[in-house]
Write a structure and sequence with these properties.
The complex is a heterodimer of chains A (341) and B (137).
Chain A: H1 9-34, H2 58-71, E1 75-76, H3 88-99, H4 112-126, H5 148-153, H6 157-161, H7 163-172, H8 185-199, H9 207-229, H10 234-245, E2 253-257, E3 279-283, H11 284-291, E4 297-298, E5 303-306, E6 314-316, H12 319-340
Parallel strand pairs in A: 3-5
Antiparallel strand pairs in A: 1-4, 2-3, 5-6
Chain B: H1 2-9, E1 15-16, H2 22-34, H3 42-50, E2 54-56, E3 59-61, H4 74-80, E4 89-94, E5 98-103, E6 108-113, E7 119-123, H5 126-133
Antiparallel strand pairs in B: 1-2, 2-3, 3-4, 4-5, 5-6, 6-7
Classes of the chains: A alpha+beta (341), B alpha+beta (137).
Chain lengths: 341, 137
């Protein structure tokens, strides 16, 4: 690819726009090649004007897209290790950590022991002559480490912080402590949900929200620069930054997981699947879509913002800056915890 | 359903497409059928009559021939998403990790992992599906 010097910004921006148009056109062509349409009413087959060129085959179009992405250094994902895919429990666990949203599992997802306990307790409490059961256990009676599911959950910092909440809620629900060794993630997530409802608050800040704030804190200025080069209005850029400072984003942007959730065991440290280092901010169309094309394409692990196919519109990671941000954030949290005691 | 539509109206920073009329929906159902895709369920059509596509905070819901850059067309998206497990599944939207789909065989909406197509959650109607997928309180 022929790169023009930075001084020729408008030309470079035009080139970027052509690249974006090209990939969108190829995706459209691929969809159109597979699309079946009604023949226009009143037209017989011989009325259709002959095409000058044969329609490209689907394989040919897919190859064109593949070659295009290769030309901008985006290559198909090839796992380095043969790793198991995320199972159902792991998928849910990762999602709750990522977006902080509780999704009610199916009844069959709970462990037998927990499901039985909660049913017995619910029946006792719903009996006509039944008073609310007295609390039988203390939070410290619950040894969460006895649960294999908890041993994995606690590697996520969000869940680790929730340990006292889970213990508190288990005691309130009168769940026998011996059940813990059989509890799975779905059981724990229901307990956490109940705690959250009772306290009318989220038990933790979602990793997604934390990542947006970290992105703005560490790369806000470079982000502004790139967005200005892409010719976005200053008011819009400011609005996007403000949203990120509050832990969310504009509809045009979102985070891409470089190693996707189902392949999280490919990571050296799988519990870091949602961490900032495994995510990259990008535009939804067509950039994020191209990373999910086919069986997935790999992003450069050192890119933190993919604003365009031209490297001029990409932001490289600065590990030192990130480390300092995390350190100061950690200190803030400790000070906050001390004050609230 | 009206409660959900009202909540969507108050979503800050959401981009929504123009409403669709009945004729467009009928022609679109035919397009879906021609391409071996399930027809749109009635309650989703009610949603489309109010919002023909929607983008908000990492969530995109597809529409019928939307025009804007950030909007996506249902048929096109279902053609481009590879490895959809069976022809009774229609992808209606997505967020960063999952698809929202209509399962014509089971007559339910489903949250499906983008990578593995595993079903993570099931919703019995559009109102519940939208409330959960868009995190409407």
């Amino acid at each position: 690819m022929l790169y023009l010097s930075k001084s020729k910004l408008p030309e470079r921006l035009n080139a970027e726009r052509h690249l974006v148009e090209a990939i969108r056109d190829k995706l459209d062509a691929l969809a159109n090649a597979q699309l079946k349409q009604d023949r226009p009413i009143g037209k017989k087959k011989q009325d259709t004007p002959p095409k000058r060129t044969k329609p490209k085959s689907i394989t040919h179009l897919k190859n064109e897209i593949h070659l295009f992405l290769a030309s901008v250094n985006i290559h198909p994902h090839r796992p380095e290790v043969e790793a198991e895919k995320a199972n159902r429990e792991e998928s849910w666990l990762i999602r709750l950590d990522w977006d902080g949203k509780f999704h009610m599992p199916a009844d069959t997802d709970y462990s037998e022991a927990y499901a039985r306990s909660r049913q017995i307790i619910s029946e006792q409490e719903n009996q006509a002559d039944g008073d609310k059961s007295p609390l039988l256990y203390k939070p410290e009676d619950y040894l969460l480490y006895q649960s294999p599911s908890w041993l994995f959950m606690r590697r996520f910092s969000n869940y680790q912080r929730c340990q006292p909440y889970i213990q508190e809620q288990l005691a309130l629900q009168n769940i026998p402590p011996e059940i813990v060794r059989q509890m799975n993630f779905f059981d724990f997530s229901e307990v956490l949900y109940n705690w959250s409802k009772r306290h009318q608050t989220q038990p933790f800040e979602s990793q997604r929200s934390q990542n947006f704030k970290m992105f703005d804190a560490c790369y806000g200025k470079e982000f502004e620069q790139v967005m200005r080069m892409l010719n976005y209005k200053p008011e819009y850029i400011e609005e996007v930054r403000q949203k990120m400072q509050r832990g969310s984003c504009d509809a045009a942007l979102n985070f891409h997981h470089k190693t996707n959730v189902s392949n999280f065991k490919e990571l050296e440290k799988p519990h870091k699947i949602n961490q900032f280092t495994n995510t990259m901010l990008t535009f939804v169309q067509p950039h994020h879509r191209t990373f999910h094309f086919g069986n997935g394409y790999d992003a450069d692990p050192n890119i933190v913002f993919f604003g365009g196919y031209d490297k001029l519109y990409q932001i490289q990671r600065n590990p030192e800056r990130e480390r300092q941000y995390l350190q100061s954030n950690q200190q803030l949290m400790i000070r906050h915890a001390d004050r609230s005691r | 359903m009206q409660t959900v539509l009202d909540k969507i109206k108050h979503l800050k920073g959401a981009y929504t497409g123009k409403k669709v009329d009945t004729e467009t929906v009928i022609l679109y159902q035919r397009k879906l059928m021609l391409n071996n895709m399930p027809p749109l369920p009635q309650d989703w059509i009610t949603f489309l009559h109010a919002y023909n596509s929607l983008s908000h905070d990492g969530v995109s819901l597809f529409g019928l021939h939307p025009r804007d850059e950030t909007d996506m067309d249902i048929v096109y998206e279902n053609i481009l998403i590879e490895n959809i497990p069976h022809e009774k599944l229609l992808i209606l939207g997505m967020d960063e990790l999952d698809y929202l789909a209509w399962n014509e065989k089971a007559k339910v909406y489903q949250r499906i992992d983008k990578g593995s197509f595993e079903v993570l959650n099931t919703y019995k109607n559009c109102k519940i599906a939208l409330s959960d997928f868009l995190s409407l309180e």
